[in-house]
Design goal:
The chain contains 13 helices and nine strands. The chain has about 290 residues and is α/β, with parallel strands linked by helices. The protein has two domains: about 160 residues, 3-Layer(aba) Sandwich (Rossmann fold), CATH 3.40.50; about 120 residues, N-(1-d-carboxylethyl)-l-norvaline Dehydrogenase, domain 2, CATH 1.10.1040.10. Strands 3-2-1-4-5-6 form a six-stranded parallel beta sheet, with helices on both faces. A three-stranded mixed beta sheet has the order 7-8-9. Helix 1 links the parallel strand 1 and strand 2. The termini are far apart.
Length: about 290
């Protein structure tokens, strides 16, 4: 297929690569043009200087950028993709954004005569590189049916959850769950250290029971070693939790644990951890413990 991919961050770069390796003709756009050239040299695809030029005449346009404002710029901006997309094409958005912008873009796409699927992902950089992402989708059944087989090279699990915005709402649930789990791990491991137990040994036992989680299996070693220069950055988690908290206010839903963990992440940022992995909540927990002992 003729495909465009907008945004070559830590997720988009390997995802676009999977699409090219699957035999598609992929044209990429990235705000930093040098990174687009690097991608083309590595995978053999093409580059375009603007989202509009990347999207012109393509069957499907994929996107994975940072925030609502970035998404609006590459879609509806002066050189945005929506103005160049042909009728009958499809836009698939992998950005973690608000449900409101997903609905806005879906309505705009419908007026212009092409489809839209909001499809945020979970699985981190490793999941993108290894082609093992979970994809949460919102849109029509027909649009999703077109997108699903094309996304397959980087998908472990994909599911349509409802109309436009449903994928973003599901990603909010995903991030809420992660935040609570990581804080729970931080508290548990902090207590174990204070009590003189070995985190490796504790994890070996509790990971075989009901406490097991992806975060435990994939982050306990780096948490124990104090290594956080990897994975999903705190600043991006705060962006995602902010979206979830805003949606909760609209829905009249209280998210007290999520709000508290977001405050804890703000403290991690103050400790210099803006770009640390989200498991760095353990740093805050340990800092507080050591402060209480002094």
């Amino acid at each position: 297929m003729k495909i465009a991919f907008l945004g070559l961050g830590v997720m988009g770069y390997p995802m676009a690569g999977h699409l090219q390796k699957a035999g598609n003709e992929v044209t990429v756009y990235n705000r930093n043009g040098e990174k687009a050239k690097k991608w083309a040299a590595e995978y053999g695809g093409r580059t375009a200087p603007t989202p509009a030029e990347a999207a012109k005449d393509q069957e499907i346009v994929f996107c994975c950028v940072g925030r609502d404002s970035d998404l609006r710029e590459v879609t509806l901006g002066a050189a945005g993709a929506f103005g160049a997309m042909k009728k009958g094409s499809l836009f698939v958005d992998h950005t973690t954004a608000s449900a409101s912008i997903a609905r806005e873009l879906a309505a705009d796409a419908q007026k212009r005569g092409f489809g839209f699927v909001d499809a945020p992902v979970s699985g981190g950089q490793a999941g993108a590189v290894n082609g093992k992402l979970g994809i949460m989708c919102g849109g029509s059944q027909a649009d999703y049916a077109r997108a699903e087989p094309v996304m397959a090279p980087y998908t472990k699990m994909a599911k349509l959850l409802g109309p436009a915005g449903s994928g973003q709402l599901t990603k909010m649930a995903n991030q809420i769950c992660i935040a609570g789990i990581v804080q729970g791990l931080s508290e548990a491991y902090c207590l174990m250290r204070a009590a003189g137990l070995d985190i490796e040994g504790v994890t070996d036992v509790i990971s075989k029971g009901a406490a097991q989680s992806w975060q435990m299996e994939n982050r306990y070693k780096t948490m124990n070693a104090g290594e956080y220069n990897h994975g999903f950055a705190v600043e991006w988690m705060r962006k995602d939790l902010g979206i979830a908290l805003e949606e909760a206010r609209k829905q009249g839903v209280s998210l007290p644990v999520t709000a508290l963990v977001d405050q804890f992440y703000a403290e991690v940022e103050n400790l210099g951890g803006k770009r640390w992995d989200t498991s760095s909540l353990f740093v805050r927990q340990e800092t507080a413990r050591k402060g209480n002992k002094s």
